[in-house]
Amino acid sequence: EEYAAGRLEPRTLHDHCGYVNSLAVGPNETLYSGSSDYVVQVWSTRDGQLLRTLEGHTDDVHSLAVAQDGTLYSGSEDRTVRVWSGEAGIHLRTLTGHTYGVTALAIGANGNVLSGSSDQTIRVWSGRDG
Question: Residues with Cβ < 8 Å from 85, sequence gap 6 or more?
Fold first, then answer.
């Protein structure tokens, strides 16, 4: 309401070295941002502080999704989906199979992870696998 009334200036979060391609909101007032600098950054929405940087992708990060349990998924031009322990930022596993970059991610109601790619396919990963 205060933003709409023009009484509150928006906060600017700045630390990426490339285009910001995707955003996802996690539990506990956490914001994730994926960028063409190959990383995912974890921010506090309470104070705008950068909490950590998740490294591991070897190309642009195009897509992010957060599961109900807080698990973070990041999709990249490097053709992979990386699975992270959310706020802790621990890399759990890498999902492979796309032949071009991963451009879209979604979490199904049953917990399955869906990834869309420039290879013109959608892959459905079991929540147990992802």
Answer: 70, 71, 72, 92
Number of CB atoms found within 10 A of residue 104's CB: 15
pTM, two decimals, is 0.89
Residue with tokens 């399955």: 112
81-113: pLDDT as tens digits: 999 998 789 999 999 999 999 999 999 989 999
At 21, the pLDDT band (50, 70, 90 cuts) reads very high
SS3 labels along the chain: CCCCCCCCCCCCCCCCCCCEEEEEEECCCEEEEEECCCCEEEEECCCCCEEEEECCCCCCEEEEEECCCCCEEEEECCCCEEEECHHHCCEEEEECCCCCCEEEEEECCCCCEEEEECCCCEEEECCCCC
Q: Please report, for residues 10, 40, 49, 84, the alpha-carbon distance to residue 13 in angstroms, rounded to integers and kept in the order given.
A: 10, 13, 8, 22
Residue with tokens 């879209």: 104
For the chain, give the number of residues: 130
